[in-house]
Amino acid sequence: MAFGDYPKEYNPSVHGPYDPARFYGKPDTPFGQVKISEIGSWLARRNKTPSAFMGAVSRAWWRWQHKYVQPKRVGMAPFFQLLVANMAFFYAINYGKIKHHRNYKYH
Amino acid sequence: MIINRILRLSNSLFHRDSLFLFAHTQTCPTRKRPVCPSSGSTSSDTPGGGTAIKRRAEPGKVRLGMFPDDWFTFFHSKTGVSGPYILGILLTNYMFSKEIYVMEHEYYAGLSIFVIIVGITKNFGKDIGKVLDSEIDALENELNQGIKNQLNLYETVIKDCQEMQKQAKGQQMLMDAKKENVSMQLEAVYRERLMQAYNAVKGRLEYHSKRTRVLNRIHQKWMLEWILDNVRKSITPDFEKQALNRAIEDLSAMAGRA
């Protein structure tokens, strides 16, 4: 299994053209409908290989793209979202350094 | 040849070599290969058959420029309309007051940039959007126009091929008409000659009948003459006297009766 291959469960004659935002494995309950008590078993059923993680990240990225970047008429929303996400991420990884620039000692 | 007609028709629009691929002949038939891998199963029997990804026309709705609308409506049932906004205000208040978000020099630079960006988006956003939308529409129309042009081209080719088929059929009909013509002429000549033969035969038969009639008449005439001659010769004076006497006796008998 090399990089950039189609998922193993994808079958062109059955699924049609490839949709990168779609999960082609065995269908399971969506995460929004999993009850709190079932979370353990739900997580246990997941595929925890690195390629599965990459697949999940890639599908999430494509789903976001399908919704905000690929439509015919998009606004500034994707740029702002990416900007703010970038800002938050870099603030988080630099927090140790920024902590020392506080203006007040007691909050 | 059909291929030459096709090539001549689309001289201006296509390269000559690519058209050889489109011409369907008996030795090199075009194979109907589907464009999408799944277009073999376009019916709804197979699951997912024909489900191409359609590009949405409008993006997901956002509030405040970047927050998805679903986040706000998700809490409507629990907290009402103002719930998410209150959450936002409280969160930012907490981050600023506890100085988790430090207002250092980078923050003030970012704030200035934020003000500029919001100003530009609010004032010029719609106009820029309109310009970009019109460009996208022009591109889409161009692509669709290309498809339409090709379809029209093929329709023209089809029509011309059908015309040529009709002309070929017309040629066949022409040949049939010519054959009919020739056969009619033959019939006419045949009847003419038949009439000639009939007339010739009739003439000869009439000649024979006339000849026999003439001969019969001549024979009759000569026979009569000969008979009368012989009879006149056989009348002797003796016989004449007897005939006269008998006649006188008959006359006197008749006169006596009357």
UniProtKB/TrEMBL annotation, chain A:
InterPro entries recorded: F1F0-ATPsyn_F_prd
Pfam families reported for this sequence: WRW (PF10206)
Keywords for this protein: ATP synthesis, CF(0), Hydrogen ion transport, Ion transport, Membrane, Mitochondrion, Transmembrane, Transmembrane helix, Transport
MF terms (GO), sorted A to Z: proton-transporting ATP synthase activity, rotational mechanism
Species per Swiss-Prot/TrEMBL record: Leptosia nina
Cellular component per GO, a single term: proton-transporting ATP synthase complex
Tagged with keyword Transmembrane: yes
Family: Belongs to the ATPase F chain family.
GO BP term, pick one: proton motive force-driven mitochondrial ATP synthesis
TM stretches of this protein: 74-93
Protein's UniProt name: Mitochondrial ATP synthase F chain
Localization per Swiss-Prot or TrEMBL: Mitochondrion membrane
From TrEMBL, chain B:
Main location, first listed in the record: mitochondrion
Annotated compartments: Mitochondrion; Mitochondrion inner membrane
Gene Ontology molecular functions: proton-transporting ATP synthase activity, rotational mechanism
Low complexity bias spans: 37-46
Keywords tagged on the record: CF(0), Hydrogen ion transport, Ion transport, Membrane, Mitochondrion, Mitochondrion inner membrane, Transport
Source superkingdom: Eukaryota
Region (Disordered): 31-54
GO CC, one annotated term: proton-transporting ATP synthase complex
Record-linked Pfam families: Mt_ATP-synt_B (PF05405)
InterPro entries found in the cross-reference section: ATP_synth_Bsub_B/MI25, ATP_synth_F0_suB
Transmembrane segments: none
Protein purpose: Subunit b, of the mitochondrial membrane ATP synthase complex (F(1)F(0) ATP synthase or Complex V) that produces ATP from ADP in the presence of a proton gradient across the membrane which is generated by electron transport complexes of the respiratory chain. ATP synthase complex consist of a soluble F(1) head domain - the catalytic core - and a membrane F(1) domain - the membrane proton channel. These two domains are linked by a central stalk rotating inside the F(1) region and a stationary peripheral stalk.
Family: Belongs to the eukaryotic ATPase B chain family.
Subunit structure: F-type ATPases have 2 components, CF(1) - the catalytic core - and CF(0) - the membrane proton channel. CF(1) and CF(0) have multiple subunits.
Protein name per UniProt: ATP synthase subunit b
Species this chain originates from: Leptosia nina
